[in-house]
Amino acid sequence: MVAVGAFSVTTVGAGRAAAADAPPPVPALTDAAAAEVAPADEEQAIEEPATGSTPQVAPLVVTGYVDVGFAKAQGDGTSFHPADNRAPLDYGVDPFAPAVNSRGEAASTDPGVDASGNPRFVNGFLPRSAGIGGTPSFLLNTANADFRYTSPELPVMVFTRVQLVPRLEGTGELTRLFLEQAFGRVAPIKSAELAISVGKFDSVFGIEYLENQANFRIGITPSLLARYTTGTSTGVKVFYRFQLIAISSAVSINASATNSGTFVEALQGSSRSLTGVPVGTARLGYELNLARLSVKLGASVERGPRNDQNDRAAMQLLYGFDLRLFVGGLTLMGEFVKVDEEEGNPNKLTGTGTYAFSSDFYAQGFWLQAAYELPLPIAPFRITPYARYEQRHGEFVGFASIAVDRLTAGLNVGVGENLIVKGEYLVNRELEGAPSVANNVITSSVVWTW
Amino acid sequence: MRATQSGGSQNWAGAGAAVVALAMAGCNAREHVEHKVWNLFAINAALAEGRSVAVGPTLPDGIPASELLTQNTSGAVMLKVQRAFAEGQPAAFVTTELWLNYDAIWLQPLYAQFIAADLMARIDTPLVIDVGPESSFYSPFWQVNYAVVGDVPGYLSSKDLLDAASLIVPAGLKTCPLRPLDIGAADLALPAPWDAWNTSISLQTIPMGEVVFEAEEVVQTVGVFDFGHELFELQVGDNGTVVKTSPMFLFVDSNGTPLTGEPRVLSAGTVVLDDGSGGPRPRFGGLWRVVKAMLPDSAGAFHGDVHIAARDAAMRANGDPLDYEGRVALDKTCFEEAAANNFPDGCAWLDSQAQLESLLGAGRLVATELTQTGPLVLYDKQPVPVNP
After folding, report:
1. ipTM rounded to 2 decimals
2. What are the strands, taking DSSP E only, across B73-177?
3. A87 touches chain B (CB under 8 A)
4. Are B131 and A86 an interchain contact pair (Cβ–Cβ within 8 Å)?
5. pLDDT class for B187, splitting at 50, 70, 90?
6. Cα angle at A29 between A25 and A32, to 5 degrees?
7. pLDDT tens across A129-160, in order?
8. Cβ atoms of residues A129 and A106 within 8 Å
9. Cβ-based contacts of A273 with chain B (< 8 Å)
């Protein structure tokens, strides 16, 4: 339990929970999510060195983590049925289901060939791929470095998150460099929790983006809905929180105008606007913070032109609701998300390439997750079993709608502030529309935080 | 103090103006690009409402649906035959689909169900498809698969079928446009002015069938025309396998007006002889890319009722002037006055891909945003046998 300001927040282990709209307990110097929105004075309180020997926080702080995994997916590592040759192949299944790491990378996205040897056709509804197929493999999921500069004179913070992702592609070794975040933030009113960020920053939709990074995530893999809500994008963001001290509560609004909204970059690139019109996203939050109980509720909405094509009239609309409950060592959280994308222009452009065109699309689903930190007197170890259930319905207009679900169960073992070891098993099922395939995943992750 | 407030207000106003200016710039930056498929369902709907299809930059007025479908005396809607020239000879085709701004068309799976791996006993159940006529990814080009599913009544959805199948055997490629159940293809006939040939040339009836697919959890039944095997080839595109297009040339006069009333010119391709009838079976025609052939001022089409001297010359040489009806010559003076005496040999005809490329040159051949199906029903002035 970490005391912040007037309230207490119960967590399930240091180094995991990180709430952008709440002052969360986090490992010192690593919480970029909190750094995005927390006012400078609060942030400094979090970051103050434990020794107390140096009252000043260094202007530039460099932190990071290394996430190393070992994963094995069933079948060929995709959700594609070997005898299915629909076009596009990725419209009739959930290619994101066999995720192997916190980046949401699938074990494989290789569409393969049909029985006649012809490459099967896809249209860019694809995650990034770890490229391991059905072969068990170690993966250096992410090598992450965060650079945070806090002005000693002004309420300004500048943050950059750089990630290296080494993969052995079909054409050879390739290490991708992702500029995951790069923004400046100003807190113009010292007496108010108001922060304005400009640059490339985290999503403001829902709650799952808070766990984007492996060192914050309780489990390993993102939900089946994370593809719509957790992408970083470029633009401007405003966060404001108002404390209702008399009722131990706070309300907050987190709103952004960005190039691409909150889809992950594999589906919509964020570095430039293709339509000239920004995508607006906002979350309204309420939190109740008691000594032994914390409840957080939120409602999110997003509206704007889809940024995988250039017709500004082709809109996307998302809305969702989220809930988090912290009591004792138990954390319950869940989210409902609904997505509606209108058909756009030909020549779809995503983070993974160019495709035929952007289709009319609907999806909705939910996820529920429970985690409980066992009350064991074995410091510095923290042991947290967790489980998540989720469903996703999706339909590209003119295709059969599909329904899939997933059950994830795992164990998170924290060791001090610098090491987390996680292991989980994903049971993926195709309920409607999509042919059943063997695409369960067993995966693990060792996160070294520095 | 007042001055400071005023200055601050001006700053916000300036910023607001900048935002508005940026937003307005954005508003004018990007436009909708129409991309659309008209299949027999859409063409039939347009026919009922008296509308045109394939409206776009190449054909601003589109093609009247009545040029593609026709109603017979009993009110039944039928395919309408369109004239063309292929390799310098009269040919004809039917149009069942048109696509606007599609770079590629793809293959979709179609399943027939069998009890056992010997493929001897086919289950008496409709063919199953996945992608229906409402989809942007609709295609009339099918990968036929034989699915071995055991001794069951048969499955009506591809999910159930794939989940149950012990074996999937690829069984060739077919061109089978989906059709509303009330559209037929019996009594196909050549249009005017080639209708005079209908007494001697009997175009074959296109075989028909039915398929089922699941949409919004409801099994739907639609019809198909079966134009048979091997009317297209495949190629590997950037994102997988797609159907290869062949050029279909649409003449455009020197004013830029498409000559939609004149026969089109079809590209060359492999033609085999049918084992049964001995008739020509073009191994192409499934998918065409419409290419504009930009004519010079000198070019023009022959019409017997206008170019009477040329028509008479053809008849004197025991030729059939209808063979040349609508055929475009590079220099239309070959139809006129004294030159007409050498008709048709005196004309440089633009009636094959090779002639177009050599006489017009590549610079006057411009690919358009239109693709279309166009299975041939007449080739080399002979009916094309259709083998389902």
Report:
1. 0.85
2. 77-79, 81-86, 89-94, 98-100, 108-114, 127-129, 141-148, 167-175
3. yes
4. yes
5. confident
6. 75
7. 999 999 999 999 999 999 999 999 899 999 99
8. yes
9. 26
